[in-house]
Amino acid sequence: MKKIIFAFVALFFATLSYAQIEGKWKTIDDETGQAKSIVEIQKRANGQYYGKVVQLLIKPADPNCSGCKDDRKGKPVLGMEVIRDLKKDGNEFSGGTITDPKTGKTYKCIIKREGDKLDVRGYIGFALIGRSQTWHKVD
After folding, report:
1. 101: domain range?
2. Positive or negative: CA dihedral 40, 48, 122, 108
3. Does 61 map to a domain?
4. Is residue 14 included in any domain, yes or no?
5. 133 forms bridges with which residues in the sheet?
6. Which of 15, 79, 98, 118 has the CB geometry, 3.0–4.6 Å to 135, for a possible disulfide?
7. Domain count along the chain
8. Can you give the residue ranges of the DUF2147 domain (predicted)?
9. Is residue 67 included in any domain, yes or no?
10. Contact, 104 vs 69, CB < 8 A?
């Protein structure tokens, strides 16, 4: 009986951790297919998820976000918070934004985890109109 209870508890926690997006993720450029950076996603005390660039894998043409229009304007891409205010909603994370440091544009964001990959979608207006990237888990 103890083994069965332990198995259910282990399965429950494995399911919870599978749906989480916390950790480090290698970003892949959807246009070139090259790895660009490492983004670390963390859950804050307010229950929302935020992600910042912790490593650049390709030297950007502009090391600062010149195109940003908010508090990130002119700030270095390295260390920049590119994901803000995501909330867990079932098996996806939404309600927040993602900023493209290359252009400075900010989009609504939906993230879904599939194994060791994140499906990251940035869009304006409707989720059907936007761009998707696949990010890979970094150990």
Report:
1. 21-138
2. negative
3. yes
4. no
5. 120
6. 118
7. 1
8. 23-137
9. yes
10. yes
Do residues 95 and 87 touch, judged by C-beta distance below 8 A? yes
**Helix and strand element counts for the chain (H, E):** 1, 8
The residue to which tokens 């993230």 are assigned: 111
In tens digits, the chain (139 residues) has pLDDT values of 554 444 343 434 444 444 699 999 999 987 888 999 999 999 999 999 999 999 999 988 889 999 999 999 999 999 999 999 999 999 999 999 999 999 999 999 999 999 999 999 999 987 778 889 999 999 8
Tell me which residue of 123, 72, 94 sits closest to 21, measured CA to CA. 94
Q: Where residue 74 sits, what CATH number does that domain have?
A: 2.40.128.520
- The answer to whether residue 1 is domain-embedded is no
CB atoms within 10 A of CB 77: 19
- pTM, rounded to two decimals: 0.83
